[in-house]
Amino acid sequence: MFTKLPRWIEVGGFWLASIAGAVNAIGLLGFEHQAVSHLTGTSTLLGLSLVNLDMSESLHLFIILVSFMLGAALSGVIIDNAVLRLGRRYSFALLIEAGLLLLAMLSLSQGSNLGHFLASAACGLQNGMVSTYSGATIRTTHVSGLFTDLGTMLGARLRGHPIDTRKIIIFLMLISGFIFGGSIGAYSFQHLQFVSLAIPATGAMALAVVYWVYRHISKVHG
């Protein structure tokens, strides 16, 4: 389970969560308060718009949902496995994510709603890219499940069961990364508007390079 996860998971998870947090903050500030790194709020807004018979808004929200799903599907095509394992094509997936975010930046800067869909697809791609490892769920684009898991672990500890400290550390790193990224996204949006999407895009590209170098060094010394 979590004890089997490689040591680079903490750093990589923090980085990925920071990217998602930044994109989500920019989305909330610039996409008419729409979150794009997770779909709970978007699904709720879709339900509200359907009740109000706002078909234009409903279609827009529905496409955001579909875009996220298509991004996750693209991840499945690229990586071809839901299991986190060194050597799979994560660098390529990260570069595509960066490309989607840059295209979203250009679209939104020109006033096109296409950018909403591209940003959502980028988050779906990332969420699909890091899913499970040895049965351990890794989430980097939303934190609701992480807080739920921490709460159930606390409850189990109160009943006298042992706590997996590695699991807690990973969850706290992911939550901290998401909050940190949200702060970066919010601050940069105040000064750069949609150009601020270049920051998480650059983060994804940098992580792709770091991962590629790490993988090849591991192969040489493996």
TrEMBL record:
Keywords: Membrane, Transmembrane, Transmembrane helix. Pfam families: DUF1275 (PF06912). The keyword Membrane applies. The chain crosses the membrane at residues 12-31, 59-78, 168-188, 194-214. PANTHER family: SLR0142 PROTEIN, UPF0700 TRANSMEMBRANE PROTEIN YOAK. This is Transmembrane protein.
